[in-house]
């Protein structure tokens, strides 16, 4: 089992920045086999969508809607993943969920609210 705890959400004006953090904990066996970590988001009335992911080797996948504005990074020693969000837009408003993949099992955090005011 893997537990994910997010932090860093909040209210920000359009054009501002936020940094989300997520730390994984759990059995040492499961932690060792975390491959991809990432961030997804879900806006009211919409489906959950991928924002960005990063593998243990550092390969990233970033959604076109945030490319050039958001950056994902990872600290394998701390079992942590980060999302730096710059030039935020009102359409970035959503609950952001941390995700970790262990073999073929997806784990999710509880979500953190990001609200961007115009």
Q: What is the strand and helix layout of this fold?
A:
Elements lengths: L1 E6 L2 E4 L4 E9 L1 H5 L1 E9 L6 E6 L5 E3 L7 E6 L4 E6 L8 E9 L2 E4 L3 E6 L1
Parallel strand pairs: 2-11
Antiparallel strand pairs: 1-3, 3-8, 4-5, 4-9, 5-6, 7-8, 9-10, 9-11
Describe the structure.
With 118 residues, the protein is mostly beta strands. It has one helix at residues 28-32; strands spanning 2-7, 10-13, 18-26, 34-42, 49-54, 60-62, 70-75, 80-85, 94-102, 105-108, 112-117. The strands form 2 sheets. Strands 2, 4, 5, 6, 9, 10 and 11 form a 7-stranded mixed beta sheet that branches. The chain has a 4-stranded antiparallel beta sheet with strand order 1-3-8-7. A hairpin with a 5-residue loop joins β5 and β6. The model has no long low-confidence stretch (mean pLDDT 95).
């Amino acid at each position: 089992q893997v537990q994910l705890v997010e932090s860093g959400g909040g209210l920000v004006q359009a054009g501002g920045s936020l940094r989300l953090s997520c730390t994984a904990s759990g059995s040492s066996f499961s932690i060792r086999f975390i491959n991809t970590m990432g961030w997804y988001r879900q806006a009211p009335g919409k489906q959950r969508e991928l924002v960005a992911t990063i593998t243990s080797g550092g390969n990233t996948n970033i959604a076109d809607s945030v490319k050039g504005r958001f950056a994902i990074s990872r600290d394998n020693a701390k079992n942590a993943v980060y999302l730096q969000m710059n030039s935020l837009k009102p359409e970035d408003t959503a609950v952001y969920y941390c995700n970790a993949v262990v073999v073929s099992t997806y784990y999710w955090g509880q979500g953190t609210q990001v609200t961007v005011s115009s």
